[in-house]
Batch of 2 targets.
Target 1
Amino acid sequence: MKHKVSVTLNGNQREDEVESRLLLVHYLRDVAGLTGTHVGCDTSQCGACTVHVDGKAVKSCTMFAVQADGRDVRTIEGMAARDGTLHPIQQAFWDGRGRQCGYCTPGVIMAAADLLEQNPDPSDEEIRKGLEGNLCRCTGYVNIVKAVQTAARIMATEAPRPAASPVAGE
Ligand code: FES
Ligand code: FES
């Protein structure tokens, strides 16, 4: 049986008919075509699927698409500005080699964005704690922590960003 789901996805409103047991991560990737959200495990442990739901980081493999009905969802594709300018966290990961294979990176960036929203000036330890639900098999986390610190410094000096950046692909 299918259910209607209505979400604001990266600033754009959309409605779809989905199976009741379709996971949000599969809705994002397979229905909305937003493949920046990755699937890295089947045990809800890796964090590669992390997105924002109503502004909070959520592992999108842990909820059904129908549970996102009426809510605001942001994926990695919605982090850059409309003109393509990368979000400071994205830029810091790029500049500071905060990623190697990049598979974990979208989820790490979404988790880091939530972390910095709650704590704009985190210590190393607080960053590691905040990102403990996101596993990276490549970097050893050193450059990830540095990139989050760099982003925090940049974000502290710039004007607030708009709440949503509608993107193509939804
Ligand atoms: Fe969601 Fe691994 S795919 S936590
Ligand atoms: Fe490869 Fe994190 S950069 S898993």
Note: The first strand starts at residue 2 and ends at 9.
Target 2
Amino acid sequence: MAKSKPVTVPVLLPLALPAPYDYVVPEGMEVAPGQFVVVPLATVEYLGVVWPRDETAEAPKLDPKKLREIIEVVDDVPPLPRVSLDFADWVARYTLTSPGMVLRMMMSAGRAFSPPALHYGVRLYGAAPSRMTPARARVLEVAANRMTWVKSALAEAAGVSPGVIDGLVDAGTLITEELPAWAPPRLDLSTARARLTPEQASAASEMLANVGDGFSVTLLDGVTGSGKTEVYFEAIAAALAKGKQALVLMPEIALTSHFIARCQERFGAKPAEWHSGLTAPMRGRVWRAVAENQAKLVVGARSALFLPFPDLGLIVVDEEHDAGYKQEERVTYQARDMAVVRGSLGAFPVVLSSATPSIESLVNAAQGRYRHIKLERRYKAARLPAIAAIDMRVSPPERGKWLSPVLVEAVAETLQRGEQALLFLNRRGYAPVTVCRNCGFKFECPNCSAWLVEHRFRRRLECHHCGTFVPIPEYCPNCGAEHSLVPCGPGIERIDEEVAALFPDARRVLLSSDLTPSVSDLRETLREIEDREVDIVIGTQLVAKGHHFPGLALVGVVDADLGLAHADPRAAERTFQLLNQVTGRAGRGAIPGRGLIQTYMPEHPVIQALALSDRDAFLAREIEARKAAMLPPFGRLASLLVSASARDAAESYARSLARAAPPAHKIEVLGPAEAPLAVIRGRFRFRLLVKATREADLQAYLRLWLSEAPKPKGDVRLNIDVDPYSFL
Ligand code: ADP
Ligand code: ZN
């Protein structure tokens, strides 16, 4: 009997492979794109996804007889929706990464793929056991309320070993029961909503006009505290009312406790959360709940964009200007931009919200691609803080100190009135450089071109690039002098020390990502600040973002010039955004707020824009400058970073790459140049920058170039970053 030609399908594996591989569908098996399947590759079995056949690509030339068979279809995991497959292909093409690596992000919830574990609890049921011990008696006492307990929790509450519980189950005193499976909280759209101000109401109705009406992008541009959240809540409510799923992206998900509480008030339940702080089982549950269309409202970090939403109807990108939306490792994507792509593929609206929108989004709005909605007033009595610069040349701090007398005086006044102050310095640790007073030796990282930063609290010198650390030495390793090491410059711990000496009775809290490791600790500290259990907050950018501290009256920026020195086309824009955001924490309640900015360059346009509250003039200049230099968003950039453990190898590969660059009309290749951070983790770094006009097909150019260029050999690595945000 003649056998018919076997059916083959492409299967994408979550690996760095250039494309899906073909597999034979065994007779009797039915598969469709999006389904999870187990397939062999070499000697290993992998979980992969049946991929749509790319009709534009050449048919595979492989002999089907040589192809291997799909082992099984995993049918208890919901298949990836078609839009997720298209999105993965889109992101891979745009970022020049392998689609498998994007799929890997989509599958980064390992537990979702094993059957959900059944959880059992125990409950008091039968008569007391014939043999009674003190341990058993304690268990019976704790379990007397007839609640169902998780076994380990009951053992802990009674202070006994789990064996004691097992014994009571065997004796028939306790009974084992299946615990209900986790389900995402059920939302309630009938909860009372805020009464919007006329300004908010008109913004909301303009925004609502788009929900359910296909793809659109709205830039919600409102001063800090104007009620942007209230306004986009209306859009979320509208999407949910249509039965759609909604996603809110936040740049720093650990900090969203206030937002979650507000969701709970507005929608009657907490949203599902997606971020790196989730436990593995919780990740699995949330992933499944999203895939099964059970989780309707999700708040997440940038990676939530890759969750398998089957029926997404809205994405809100909060603080859309935040650089945290750019992922720098593996797949280098900009989540704000990819959210817009996801909206376009899913034909739904996307809302970008910020008090200081990115130049990219402002230009898109000005050119009519995005709708621009503005909120110019703070809610109710709250006024925008009055901002002033402190000229450090005129009012310098005492020797070896960092706070100007003007700022110290302002903090003292604030405390006297019983209000809160916040001091901001975007630098972790105690001092950025440590020097030997005797010989001038500076502590440098052995693996990176960077100084070691003193962390006094943890008693060590640390590299902020590779994490190397050494205990703070007692002798200079260079000249042997004793007690000769002096810290140079301030970090946030040093500011804390200065404040402690100035205001010994004030209740202080120091917030820095290295000192507040867990999400729950951080949330607790933020609650203490909100409830005014703290007088002075001293912090890094961890305190700058999105918080609502009603008692905060004064924000002092210790060093406004810090970000302006960077060789980065966005340095001025970013500094403006950060300082606007941090000073915007002041005066959000009934108390008037003010911001004081310490600077040695009070005439700098960024400082002027902040002090004069003249955002528009600053932005207009910045936009002109970008246009003149053909920088984003008027031109496009890609960075090709070559690194190797030998300097020569990195440099010569970078040069050969440059030589292989095909000539092109609207595309220019700059470099290679040694990167400003010339060495990281012992690897020497050279960068090529590709500059293109908006019309040029940058990705097609890069693909052509890389297909013809020599491949990196040995330990030479090439990292491609389309639309780079980091130039170090
Ligand atoms: P933004 O996101 O623009 O910084 P928020 O939405 O966080 O502003 O609003 C600032 C504060 O004002 C919040 O505490 C919020 O609850 C309150 N608020 C804003 N609009 C309203 C409103 N219409 N009714 C009640 N409270 C509001
Ligand atoms: Zn290092």
Note: The pocket of zinc ion (ligand 2) is lined by residues 445, 447-448, 450, 463, 465-466, 468 (CB under 6 Å).
